[in-house]
């Protein structure tokens, strides 16, 4: 059900904590199979009689995997209600527990969702890290209509301070720094599941630009407009660890 069509939200503390890996729904292309990373480092010291000393060899440095929950106080969406008017909703609250992307089939107004993942702090990613992989995990609460499918773009954006304003909706006024297309399109099969999306190229770009936050805009990949809307879970309740947007990064 649509429960987020008006402005007005409360600010809560940031979420940037390490959480257990959540279940994934395997997909193809930009939605990828979950990966398990296991890197062993073996150091062997060999001393041979008559060789005048010992030799030492070591493997590559171990990879580090960190998981970052989105910042529920900064996540939100923007609805374009007319060519010149917008409704900005930012921050999860008791009555706002999700974000929307796509075109609402009842009113034909477009929503674009925004997620914010802090990269600094103990659970973040060092600015000099070499990114091996990054996956965005989102839980799909709803799709309207249930028979629809919706192609989605995930765009890297940057706005500081991280306060949503109307112009962040516009791809010209707030141009994407990079983007990935999600394939296949979202459908009713994705509702009630976690979907993992490969955003490695976006995080690499964020690292190169030394961005303090990994901020993404999620929108319908517009060709001909498709009146389909997805609802992405952003709960602040008991299920946050398993259903809130999660960024999983492996780096050296």
Descriptive notes:
This protein has 252 residues and is mainly beta. It has one domain: Jelly Rolls, CATH 2.60.120. Helices cover 5% and strands 40% of the residues. Strands 3, 4, 5, 6, 7, 8, 9, 10, 11, 12, 13 and 14 form a 12-stranded antiparallel beta sheet that branches. A two-stranded antiparallel sheet has the order 1-2. A hairpin with a 4-residue loop joins β1 and β2. It starts with 42 loop residues before the first strand and ends with a strand.
What would a concise description of this structure say?
By secondary structure, the chain is mainly beta. It has helices at residues 200-208, 240-243, and strands at 43-48, 53-58, 64-69, 76-82, 85-90, 98-103, 110-118, 131-144, 150-157, 178-186, 194-198, 213-220, 229-233, 246-251.
Summarize the topology.
Elements lengths: L42 E6 L4 E6 L5 E6 L6 E7 L2 E6 L7 E6 L6 E9 L12 E14 L5 E8 L20 E9 L7 E5 L1 H9 L4 E8 L8 E5 L6 H4 L2 E6 L1
Radius of gyration: 21 Å
- Give the percentage of residues in beta strands: 35-45%
Main β-sheet, in a few words?
Answer: 12 strands, antiparallel
Return the structural class. Answer: mainly beta
- Can you identify the CATH class? Mainly Beta
Shape: globular
Distance between the termini: 42 Å
């Amino acid at each position: 059900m649509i429960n987020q069509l008006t402005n007005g939200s409360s600010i809560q503390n940031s979420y940037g904590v390490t959480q257990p890996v959540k279940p994934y729904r395997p997909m193809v292309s930009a939605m990828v199979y979950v990966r398990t990373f296991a890197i062993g480092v073996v150091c062997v010291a060999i001393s041979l009689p008559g060789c005048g000393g010992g030799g030492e060899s070591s493997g590559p440095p171990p990879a580090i995997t960190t998981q970052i929950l989105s910042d529920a106080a900064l996540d939100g969406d923007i609805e374009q209600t007319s060519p010149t008017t917008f409704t900005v909703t930012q921050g999860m609250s008791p009555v706002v527990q999700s974000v929307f992307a796509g075109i609402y089939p009842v009113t034909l107004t477009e929503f674009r969702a925004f997620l914010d993942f802090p990269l600094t702090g103990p659970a973040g990613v060092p600015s000099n890290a070499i990114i091996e992989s990054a996956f965005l995990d989102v839980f799909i609460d709803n799709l309207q209509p249930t028979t629809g499918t919706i192609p989605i773009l995930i765009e890297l954006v940057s706005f500081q301070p991280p306060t949503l304003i109307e112009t962040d909706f516009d791809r010209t006024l707030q141009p994407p720094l990079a983007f990935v297309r999600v394939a296949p399109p979202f459908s009713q099969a994705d509702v009630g599941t976690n979907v993992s999306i490969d955003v490695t190229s976006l995080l690499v770009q964020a690292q190169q630009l030394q961005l303090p936050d990994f901020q993404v805009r999620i929108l319908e990949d517009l060709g001909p407009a498709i009146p389909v809307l997805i609802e992405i879970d952003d709960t602040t309740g008991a299920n946050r660890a398993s259903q809130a947007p999660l960024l999983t990064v492996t780096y050296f």
